[in-house]
């Protein structure tokens, strides 16, 4: 690491390594050392320095004497050795002997996949040295690290770009961020950090750091990196990679090359490193590699039997253009279409212009209408809507695809929804049995005309299930019926239409709405089946379709109590650029991310994410259905963060708007949240005004249960709440089951029915145990916490130490506050973890809950 890089890293706070540091402290408490490994740049040296600082409360040198960490058996020195693989045998053997004799506690680092001296390896085999491999940060870890360094929230798409370029590597992420801040391309605006560039490959110090981090590559390894950098993720069976398989395996062990789980493809772990290698290639070598790779990916006259080969064609066309060769117009159009599905709008524009010839044909009457359409869509995807309108005017105006692009650009991009509606209506009248009918219904969804859309499913001629009008309208009609409060009828409508032979986009829409309707019915098993069909049918690189699938899977995870899994999916979905869609919007996806963060206990980040939600909503076409759903997520976040009045106000607004528009699904969800927040009486009155919502049959189980939940809360009926908890659990909706039982506990306790209260409390704990990564909201938390796994109670001093540790104070800081030694704190924590059955400070905080805040307040912070 260069001096500059070390300085940059030092300015960054250590984040996301709490569990590793706690592992070090726990091992030290038992007199055992640790070997930290991992790929270059992952933060081994930084973590070693932090661990040494925690284990040396007096700030002594690395080989200074430390206290009796093992409870007083013997004193020993704490020794930190960075890059222990560089030690000679002559130096490693005496060190290992000192460890065996108990005179030294060893903390060391080494790169992943690199042999360490035999004497050190023997320590590990004998159990005297534990092994811990550090991994790169995931999206969530990168987001926390960036926020800690920059001091405020970082836009989700900015985090995604930085993470994708660096693979979450701590050093590369640090260097790239510092460089972007210094250049002024990464800057705050309205409380949100955004990266405005560069559009191409980053250079400068970040690229140089990436090049140095790779270290010495042999010729074969360098070629593997160059191939993956030039062609992107490619098949393992690419002829060139077969010949270079040993080098690829070596790079895989080092974390430079990653084998994807799906598609049998290889990619670079840190694309920035690949770009740095390519930048250093001689021009003739780079040109030769591009030509040869293009021929291997897309041989002349090769058949293209699958969507996977579309991706190969996209890369091949890009390589040929970079090598100075122009592919045929048909191949350029095919590559542009695939690039659009990948949301790679810049390359799509390049391919479309190449197909048009001189790049100006779209303005002067293009000879290739199909290429003009692709160019218009590429421009619209980049927010250049006026240019897109000009390009689309040169396309074939009679094509349904052109109409869809023109309507989307008019409404979504230029905000001219009435003009888009007029265009759709005119073409639907001219071709009532064609796909233009579906475009008409999309605009009506945006205009909040759901009853009109729902009725279309009955008006479309059914002489054949393959009719274009039926394929384009039925999924939209089913979606509208779901939103109007009848998901069972929507599901039945879809079941009457076998979609196996439908056109590609229509079949996708059928599967999407099937999953959505099943979720609203409360049939989570059927929803999971529909989502699995969706996963099998669509290629993972189709970003728009993956976005819809991610949102639906996240919804299923949230329903079943896997909020942490939902957060991971929604982080990826929220990075997708906004575009004309009837199923979701970027603001709504961001709002769902905020809601899932709140449900997983990350309320601070959830509130910060609301800044992005509001920014995205201001920039987008008003879409009442999606906008109200986003506001409802905002209400949930506010409620979970303690702003009950604000949450109730927003939920009430949504309930009134949705009821007036007939959107009973959203109205019920809003009333349900109001009741859960403590306003059950008014919510029940408004529910009665809506009529008998959803019936009582199994087909409408979820809606019916929510309505009953509202009424039970209004009556404060503990028996019904207990029954509802069991019914929610039978559906698989464990978070609502735990909440219902917790509310029953509160009702019984207030009535003095202590035995019933204890039974409800036990039920709440049981249902909550089925949730992985979801916490109960504050309004439903029972007064009592779950008992410790072994039934032990903490002493007063142990509770005090545990509460301060849950607040993320270091052992040294806790010792200073309580005027005891660090060794005493370590011993207390060792016993606390054993009694409570936890392994980290984060889990400690979840177990203690309000006790942690109370102890922190008592100690003045």
Summarize, please.
The chain is mainly alpha-helical and 861 residues long. The chain is built from 44 helices and ten strands.
Highlighted features:
861 residues, mainly alpha, 5-stranded mixed β-sheet, 3-stranded antiparallel β-sheet, 5% strand, disordered C terminus
Radius of gyration: 30 Å
Shape assignment:
flat
Rounded mean pLDDT score: 84
Parts with pLDDT < 50 across at least 5 consecutive residues: 58-74, 359-366, 694-699, 783-792, 850-861
Query: What structural class do helix, strand and pairing data support?
Result: mainly alpha
Count of DSSP H/I helices:
44
**Spatial arrangement of strands, main beta sheet:** 2-3-4-1-5
Terminal Cα span: 37 Å
Considering DSSP H and I runs of 4 or more, what fraction of the residues is helical? 55-70%
Q: What's the total number of strands?
A: 10
Largest sheet: 5 strands, mixed
Strand residues, percent: 5-15%
Structure description:
By secondary structure, this protein is mainly α. It is 64% helix and 5% strand. The chain is built from 44 helices and ten strands. The protein has a five-stranded mixed beta sheet with strand order 2-3-4-1-5, with helices on both faces. Strands 8-10-9 form a three-stranded antiparallel beta sheet. Strands 6-7 form a two-stranded antiparallel ribbon. It starts with a helix and ends with a helix. The C terminus is likely disordered.
What is the fold's blueprint, element by element?
Elements: H1 3-11, H2 18-29, E1 33-38, H3 44-55, E2 65-66, E3 76-81, H4 89-100, E4 104-111, H5 118-125, E5 129-133, H6 139-150, H7 156-166, H8 170-183, E6 186-189, E7 192-195, H9 204-214, H10 219-231, E8 234-235, H11 239-243, H12 245-253, E9 257-259, E10 265-268, H13 271-279, H14 283-297, H15 307-322, H16 329-341, H17 345-356, H18 369-381, H19 385-393, H20 400-413, H21 417-430, H22 436-446, H23 450-459, H24 468-483, H25 487-495, H26 504-521, H27 524-537, H28 543-560, H29 563-574, H30 586-599, H31 603-619, H32 624-640, H33 644-661, H34 664-677, H35 680-690, H36 701-715, H37 718-731, H38 734-750, H39 754-769, H40 796-806, H41 811-818, H42 822-836, H43 841-848, H44 850-858
Helix pairs in contact: 2-3, 4-5, 6-7, 7-8, 8-9, 9-13, 10-13, 10-14, 14-15, 15-16, 16-17, 16-18, 17-18, 18-19, 18-20, 19-20, 20-21, 21-22, 22-23, 22-24, 23-24, 24-25, 24-26, 25-26, 26-27, 26-28, 27-28, 28-29, 28-30, 29-30, 30-31, 30-32, 31-32, 32-33, 32-34, 33-34, 34-35, 34-36, 35-36, 36-37, ...
